[in-house]
Every structure is written in structure tokens, then in C-alpha cells.
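#lab-general

N.A. 3:47 PM
ok so I finally got the sequence cleaned up, no stray characters, all 109 residues accounted for. can someone with queue access submit it? mine expired

B.Y. 3:52 PM
send it over

N.A. 3:53 PM
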Amino acid sequence: MARKAPPVTLLGQAAKLPDSPDAAILERVPNPHADTYYVARFTAPEFTSLCPVTGQPDFAHLVIDYVPRDWLVESKSLKLYLAAFRRRRRSRSGRGHERHRSACHFAQR
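B.Y. 4:20 PM
back already:
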């Protein structure tokens, strides 16, 4: 039996930028093609955060690929989550590990 998706709260209205990635809300929507294996891709060509040493902006081009099963990550909530890193001082490897842990936790809910 398919699980019911929690309500999507960010679409169709103005949304405040989260103070931190921990405060961001990642939302999901049912995958209408859960019986088909395919790659979902999300790109963030202007991902920014702060360098932990200098405090200067650090830039990256992110490409997130995943094979969805029952759920898809709702893109507006993902954009807000990634934007929350702009205020955080973290090395690139630290940010990558943090995003990976968050995504794995999110996918297992």
C-alpha cells in the first residue's frame, strides 16, 4: 500500500530563506512513475557558501542525480535547503558529506 505524502507547504507562496540547513524543511511528493526506474536530476549551477578560513564566498556547480522510488524531492524545498548553506562556513568536502547525510536520511523516511 502506498504511503500518503505529508502536505507540501512551500509551493504557491513566498517562503523565507532558512537560517541554516538544519532549519530547512525538505519536502517530498509522490512519484507518479514509481514503477519505472529513471534518474531524476537537479542542478544548482550557482551554489555558494562561506569559506571556513577566510569567510569569503565559495562557489560550486552541484548536480544531484538520484533514482526515485515512492517519492520525489520537491524542488522548491531543495532550492531553499541549498540556499541555506550561503550563511554557513564549511569546506567543500564537509558540505558534500552533510548534504549526502541529509539526503539519505530524507529518502529513508
